[in-house]
Amino acid sequence: MAEATTRRRSRSGGGAARRAERTTLKIETAKYIERNIPLFEILNEEALEIIEANAELILEEVGVNFVNNPGALERWRNAGADVEGERVRIPRGLARELCKTAPSRITQHARNPERTVEIGGNTLVCAPVYGPPFVRDLDGGRRYATMDDFQKFVKLGYMSKWLHHSGGTVCEPTDVAVNKRHLDMLLAHMTLSDKPFMGSVTEPSRAQDSVEMCEILFGKEFVQENTVMTSLININSPMTFDDVMMGALEVYAANNQACIVSPFIVGGAMAPVSVAGTLTQVLAEVLAGIAYSQLIRPGAPVIFGAFVTSIDMNSGAPTFGTPEASQILYGAGQLARRLGLPFRSGGGLCGSKLPDAQAAYETAHTHNAALLGGVNFMLHSCGWLEGGLVSSFEKFVMDADQLGVLHQMARGVSHDENAQALDAIREVGPGGHYLGCAHTQANFKEAFWRSELLDYKPFETWEDEGARDTQALASLRVEKLLAGYQKPAMDPGVEEALNAYVAEKKASMPDSFI
Amino acid sequence: MAEATTRRRSRSGGGAARRAERTTLKIETAKYIERNIPLFEILNEEALEIIEANAELILEEVGVNFVNNPGALERWRNAGADVEGERVRIPRGLARELCKTAPSRITQHARNPERTVEIGGNTLVCAPVYGPPFVRDLDGGRRYATMDDFQKFVKLGYMSKWLHHSGGTVCEPTDVAVNKRHLDMLLAHMTLSDKPFMGSVTEPSRAQDSVEMCEILFGKEFVQENTVMTSLININSPMTFDDVMMGALEVYAANNQACIVSPFIVGGAMAPVSVAGTLTQVLAEVLAGIAYSQLIRPGAPVIFGAFVTSIDMNSGAPTFGTPEASQILYGAGQLARRLGLPFRSGGGLCGSKLPDAQAAYETAHTHNAALLGGVNFMLHSCGWLEGGLVSSFEKFVMDADQLGVLHQMARGVSHDENAQALDAIREVGPGGHYLGCAHTQANFKEAFWRSELLDYKPFETWEDEGARDTQALASLRVEKLLAGYQKPAMDPGVEEALNAYVAEKKASMPDSFI
């Protein structure tokens, strides 16, 4: 990253950039979570071996479809698969063998080197909600998302201490043409934040635009040698790889940019109703997808993804934060680790329409499972509401605050001499109290995680202040954060070049809303 | 239990009881949770050995106080401890040795044998909130609890499918004299529910009353040979055992009734600010308390308790559902298992004033830690609000519904042929869907946990119905459950005898409100 920094400095306008750097508010951000705790493994060796054998059996016997993608079929044929129409049957062991060139850990660079993240091993990188067409806040209710909303979410993400990643489509800016909004979204991530971000996947050409904008931001050579985007490639479960998603993956893999290869499954609809059956399908799909990425470019960075919800079999509604979803997350994490791949799952998932108790129960279940299940990249970690239809401003800051719980939990338990606190126990003795003792004085500042949002006040104070619930407190926090937002320093030359790129691209085509 | 059943039948009034049994609504209750999943163990062997060695060191070097209790001091002296004033120093190894006679598993009988619970090993028994002087509901707000509230909570507990235990002081009935309310509380648990319950601990004489009422309910001989109450004995941390709590423990242990021996710790105030230091003190206190129970009656059933919250070091307010509390729970569970004792911790703990998102985040963290940390008896598993000052009607049914999540999670992941679902994957193939396939049809009813409270409706339906949040839905559920409540069948002779006992006891002493 030193290289990129130097390059940017040398191109800077000089005084203006330096002044901006000096006056900019320092935003404190935790780099990423490093787990110093064991993982929770729900499947035993026998179950894992059965699922792995069945996944290979499915690939060989049933196969997967690569739709509208003659190039992919050709690549598979050359690699030794049995291709029949669009169906690709992959002989036992082939996909697993191809996956071996994928790295086990990814360094995703941010334009601010302090925000660069490590994805893999014992890390957990948290990124915000992705994809909702609606937004909600306490004052404005539920409405279609706009670019203004999008920018606000990027600003909130930038100012959230426990959020490591700026994400991608934090909401769909529905007031910008479908064929142009990726440009505005990327520009917002690049200029309003200095955290790492995701690229566009809605068209191969938009993936290419994303790469080109990164070349302006980081330098062309730096992009070819380093990962600067992590993008979300969903598989159309069951076992279908469409040309749009695969086209985007082809662009990213060829450019050494990271892809999350992720089955998107509503259990019972797009996979069997059983946990073991769903895991079998997830593994088969991910093996095929990641193997394909390695056919594009051996060594291309990829993440084993598993986005699985359950379903309310009475209404057909997808459900979130359920025990079955947690079981699948735990199992998928084990399968990913056995492949030596970074793992994406979890999030602040919930089905509730409001940032209420239901939303929080479901989110906390998913957060906990992600931490203990070994997730390395947690998309949707804050702001997700209503089954992903809504990005909620209040829930964004509520969940982002909760990510601090995961950080503290991941620190694990020290048993060094200071942590043993024998002298404190001796000093205080039966019937005393520890508030004033030397050990407490020396350690209390670091001892406990502290929320910046939740209410711990005496009842009377809380009542005098309006008896506010979490949503009301969060609404105030959103307002306060946005009022205090300051754009991170940026080389004016780079910003100008990015703006010019976006303007030119937009001018080159008519608006399309499909 | 067959014996007790026969006894009750033989004493029944005959026709009336049988008619009552025939007409009574059958209430479905899960027996208790049996974990078919591994546990999460946060401490490594080295940390465990250090904490165990330090706890013994503290007992030997610093000791514990048994206050106003010459009998206890005499018992400790006879057992080989070094007694000096009220300070009891316990030589290394002695407390651990004494604990060996405590059983590793407790069968607590309910008057309905179907509700009898097993506490220990892989089980988790859930009991409701204990102790709050206030209640809250959506319509009435926060107010002092009354006996009417108490009875409503017992009824709700009886009707809660995933709640196994009726609990104890589900709220403090402040409209009944302090010296008499235990009689009304026990009568409510015994007559309005048929689930197991807890005895009084606020005076040794009230523990004795509890035993006597159980003798009426179960028969004198049955009570002496079986455990029919699990009662909560708090230790005054740090390391102080008061005469009231120890007096109650003496009564229960002598009568073969179970006690939870539980440090009550606000971390940073009543124990060191570090996790390892707190665990050391918890272990020392529990070793001393359980050893003492075995001095009263070797083999007396006891539970290793750990109620530990953290503290907001700025305001001094206790905080709940924090990562430090979870770490302590996980560690304490490991220490309890190494002693071969049942373990009590966890609950639906939270600091929030309302059943809002904060309450749910904090509750879910504690619920999850309890499940994965090996808790065998979870007091406060539903209804707790505002740091234990308030029993909330809405939160009672919200949390009770969430206990279903823990049941489903604990079932673990099957990998039998049906769960592998290979034929389903073959049948559906790439691009299909599973909703109608044979495997889904055969399995969907049992596949997913289903909330009886949370909202999964389409947005438009939800909006048309009033855009209700979880609290509003819970309020309706409370109303509906109470409206549908039917008293479980009971031998009229037994009920008459219980009423007569309570009336006589109450008449024998003037009201006291201190």
UniProtKB/TrEMBL annotation, chains A, B:
InterPro entries: MttB-like_sf, MTTB_MeTrfase. Residues 1-21 are annotated as: Disordered. It is an enzyme of class 2 (transferase). One of its GO terms (biological process) is methanogenesis. It comes from the Bacteria. Belongs to the trimethylamine methyltransferase family. This is Methyltransferase.
